[in-house]
Amino acid sequence: MKFFSVDSSLYRFLTRLWDIIQVNFFWLVCCVPIVTIGASTAAAFHVCMKMVDDEEGYIGREFLKGFKENWKQGTIVGIITIVCTYAVYLDIQIFEAVEGNPIVFLIVAMVSGFLFFLCLIYAYPLLVRYRNSLKGTLKNSFTIARRYFLRTLLLAFIIMIEFVVWRFNSTTLFIGFLIGPACIMFTVAGMALRIFQMIEKEPNTTVIREEQDFE
Question: What is the pTM of this model?
Fold first, then answer.
């Protein structure tokens, strides 16, 4: 039946779903030593960026390749991500713990969380697609997020919806465990790749693969 052929939408959907499950599995395994979360995330984005372009090949092989190529900067970005997340979490905890709930701590948490999001949302896709310094990667992530602000807000909204759906009940929570992180990374990779391709088509663009910043 055509419905079950290799060219059918169902077959392509199930194939992509299986790819995402594999990425999520490798990501979880490689995150077990906490310090490797960043490198594992970079490897997952390496695969997801290729998946968006239908160039992923064997998932496990591509994941290990991405881990090896990006483990150093990925680890550092991972540590930065953890520190920033904890800082926002700490502000929220202080807001809830201090008598009277001083609004200043909540405002600090919201503003700092938003700035961290802008600096980090495109950091991993930039890291795996271009050669650049860590400072240049973070700077470019912030600049791109600011320039394509509405697209970035849409991306944040989609991610929030994914979180809400997966936390709906125990069944969706289990599904979220199986595919959640990889699905979010695939979503980010899809938006990031579209933006990168638009920038690369611009005349005299400074987004190149050799140690230069995007302005």
Answer: 0.86
